[in-house]
TrEMBL record:
Keywords: Magnesium, Metal-binding, Phosphotransferase system, Sugar transport, Transferase, Transport
Keyword Transport found: yes
Name by which UniProt lists this protein: PTS lactose/cellobiose transporter subunit IIA
Cofactors named for this entry: Mg(2+)
Keyword Magnesium recorded: yes
Organism: Heyndrickxia sporothermodurans
Length: 102
């Protein structure tokens, strides 16, 4: 797999993770905490996939196969970090909605 394919996988999985986190907040807002928690789990699974792909880049670099740092790669990293942050905040929102609805 070339660097562009790796970068696209990071972007795709990160985007899916963020979308799942947004849906989790909406589900919690609609008082469907079970669905919200399932969506958080889906988000975490997508982030795990993105991390595995990112790790392949790191492992390649450790073996001496350094990838060129391009704007495309930086963009992928930005997507990943934003998705992680959004998922973490979504978990907090779900917990907040859950406690409000008790």
């Amino acid at each position: 797999m070339n660097v562009e394919e790796i970068v696209m996988k990071i972007i795709t999985h990160s985007g899916n993770a963020k979308s799942d986190a947004v849906e989790a907040i909406q589900a919690a807002k609609g008082k469907d905490i079970a669905a919200a928690n399932e969506l958080i789990e889906k988000s975490e699974a997508e982030l795990l996939h993105a991390h595995h792909v990112q790790t392949s880049l790191i492992q390649n670099e450790a073996c001496g196969n350094k990838a060129e740092v391009t704007l495309f790669l930086v963009h992928a990293q930005d997507h990943l970090m934003n998705a992680i942050t959004f998922k973490d905040l979504a978990k907090e929102f779900v917990e907040l909605y859950e406690s409000m609805n008790k």
